[in-house]
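Lecture notes, continued. The same structure-token format from the folding unit now serves as the input rather than the output. Read the line below as a description of shape only.
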């Protein structure tokens, strides 16, 4: 069995909360040196009052790393106009020499975040679909004309283009069938969160069917998983740490997430992941709630090694 690509969070700087940009960038260097495959950044403008711009975060990380993959997971594209986003992504992709992947979602847990940006949350799905078409066209076509309900472009030219001629890979996040259809129509992968292995297998089947209807090759559309978890020899201590962080972030009781958010030793996290790999999962965002970023890197390496043992393969560099 092939091992998944492993991403870990970059972390976000906020000096008033005691986290400097220098700490985040040093952690990125350490993750690259430790052999982690990729770094991912979340994206919110004001999620219950907190934000992190995924593209700004990864631009800084790109400037201090050389080989590690970079992923926004997931970018709230519908909060922005797609034309400046296309330029920002293209410039970042050139800076990192083609290491960027753009994950896109429509997360709506905090409707006030959308209203704060002047966007009716009821329109976010349609805005996202239009924006995805515009991004791909601006990245790959000499000139773009688009007539949609929310966005209109007339003979727009964009330079610079991304580092890669085919543009930047787009991964679609979300749990609904609408997200799966979006992945089948526009995406290079679907990234899951809060799903069972059975749901992932069912999603694979639906994406294959819908991609074929769109005239796309289903084999070119991958699967990913974003996994909240905590690694610790003491499972109760890990659970307490994970529950506290998730409840503070989502403002929802941890019990709602518990079946999808494991805790314990690295071997237990690896065992939890194996059915997802069997369902076709090709990469995992290991969102480990650890006491420090250094310990998050160590935990990811340990989980990766445990997965290699279970799968009967050797961990990659």
């Amino acid at each position: 069995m092939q091992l998944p690509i492993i991403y870990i969070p970059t972390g976000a700087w906020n000096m008033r909360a005691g986290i400097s940009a220098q700490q985040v960038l040093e952690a990125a260097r350490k993750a690259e040196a430790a052999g982690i495959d990729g770094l991912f950044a979340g994206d919110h403008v004001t999620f219950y009052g907190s934000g992190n711009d995924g593209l700004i975060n990864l631009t800084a990380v790109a400037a201090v790393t050389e080989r590690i993959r970079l992923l926004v997971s997931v970018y709230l594209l519908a909060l922005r106009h797609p034309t400046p986003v296309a330029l920002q992504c293209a410039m970042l992709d050139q800076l990192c020499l083609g290491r960027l992947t753009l994950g896109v979602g429509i997360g709506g847990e905090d409707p006030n975040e959308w209203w704060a940006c002047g966007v009716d949350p009821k329109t976010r799905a349609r805005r996202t679909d239009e924006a995805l078409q515009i991004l791909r066209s601006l990245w790959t076509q000499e000139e773009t004309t688009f007539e949609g309900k929310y966005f209109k472009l007339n003979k727009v030219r964009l330079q610079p283009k991304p580092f890669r001629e085919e543009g930047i890979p787009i991964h679609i996040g979300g749990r609904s069938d609408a997200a799966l259809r979006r992945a089948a129509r526009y995406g290079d992968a679907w990234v899951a969160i809060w799903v069972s292995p059975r749901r992932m297998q069912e999603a694979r089947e639906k994406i294959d069917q819908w991609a074929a209807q769109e005239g796309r090759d289903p084999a070119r559309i991958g699967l990913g998983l974003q996994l909240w978890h905590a690694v610790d020899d003491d499972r109760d201590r890990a659970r307490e740490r994970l529950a506290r962080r998730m409840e503070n972030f989502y403002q929802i009781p941890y019990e709602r997430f518990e079946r999808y958010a494991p805790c314990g030793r690295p071997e237990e996290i690896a065992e939890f992941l194996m059915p997802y790999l069997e369902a076709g999962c090709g990469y995992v965002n290991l969102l480990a709630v650890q006491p420090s970023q250094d310990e998050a890197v160590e935990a990811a390496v340990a989980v990766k090694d445990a997965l290699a043992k279970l799968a009967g393969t050797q961990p990659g560099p």
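Point for the exam: The longest strand covers residues 222-231.
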